[in-house]
Amino acid sequence: MNMKKYKLLLAYDGTHYVGWQIQPNGNSIQHILQETLSILLKENCIVIGAGRTDAGVHAIGQVAHFQTSYTGALLPLLKSLNGMLPHDIRVKLLEEVEDSFHARFSAKSKEYHYHLWLGDTIDPFFRLYRHHMRHSIDITLLRTALSRFVGRHDFRTFANVNTQIQSTIRTLYRIDLIEQEGGYRIEYEGEGFLYKMVRNITGTVLDIARGKRSLSELDSLFSAKDRRAIGIAAPAKGLFLQKVRY
Amino acid sequence: MNMKKYKLLLAYDGTHYVGWQIQPNGNSIQHILQETLSILLKENCIVIGAGRTDAGVHAIGQVAHFQTSYTGALLPLLKSLNGMLPHDIRVKLLEEVEDSFHARFSAKSKEYHYHLWLGDTIDPFFRLYRHHMRHSIDITLLRTALSRFVGRHDFRTFANVNTQIQSTIRTLYRIDLIEQEGGYRIEYEGEGFLYKMVRNITGTVLDIARGKRSLSELDSLFSAKDRRAIGIAAPAKGLFLQKVRY
After folding, report:
1. Which of A39, B37, B111, B119 could join B242 via S-S bond, C-beta 3.0 to 4.6 A?
2. What is the DSSP string of A56-86?
């Protein structure tokens, strides 16, 4: 049968999900998309995402692909999808792609944003989308600590991975700290990210910025190559998968 | 006993509440504030709000007052309040006011914002805070229709009130239509607003802007002085009590 390949651009509020990836128990974004597409297309449908966002992590620009024998118009399919999906998951674009396209393996870079609220009282409309830092932090120190992560490094310390996996070397192209309402956002852009890498890096630089750990420790943290060398990851709700570039 | 009067500046996400005002069944903002203050202050506490927002209506700048024999520091009280209140209600400011201050009767003007999403697919992060218009609308027509409401008018047609109440004449100082991400917001500023007046006006001008009703009907709607002359109110979730001026 002649199968076509389609690309989805997705936004979702991760608050009520166990994350992107299908889990034995709990609602995942991937599972809901697959179920909805399978009903609409009347055939089993596998959806592959660009990045596996964790429980509570949000997406503005997640990308996914699926294959189907469906050959009908795309706009009605997009509208039916959004009509059936829960309101906290939206398909922003649906388009046909080359057979060689793969949401994960074709990605050239990914961009994650981590949002911090630094004010005393967090705006209730941001309560699910910001990490509310209750300690005062040194922004200059934060900026300096972040700059240490740009470039090609072995990020093993900053990833929740077992020792079996392949290389933990990754390249971060850019990290920017940008002021915004209520605080700052950290923009991370890189070729790829290890499991929990953004939240682990963010947790570590926040520990430095609040004086819990010193900037000079960073080198030894990198060379430790052991997740246990660092503290807790920054909370999921502050993190957004912003954009995937191909 | 020497009572002091305090003013609260409040923001809340109205999604999960029956509205500001205490109702026989269901959670109201006023009830939760009174319960929380009564526990903290160890005395019965009545909280009076500037405006009675409906079920599902949000607030960025609601104002309320209460009296108490408490004479302690304010910052710890503010922090305890926010510590005990649900995360969708935040107290932004707490300050002592003159005994003559009344959150409702001392208000010089109120500002409400009504937020419209006009794009095909609503950003999931705005799903509870925008009215998603699925019909295409004529912005020039919307602007013209809105301008008809500025000034001093009898708004009886646009209020859900019984005929027993006092005057339904009110003055709207300003109505602005402002472009923003995903659509527009309508800013209403006036000396005071009748029950459901903002949502009824918004529903009516949207009916005009989408061609369901003609602009020339507006005069007869005003003179009808009957709520039944107009269509349905715009949905609560698009409405924010933005600011109360004293």
Report:
1. B111
2. T-EEEEEEEEEEES--S-HHHHHHHHHHHS-
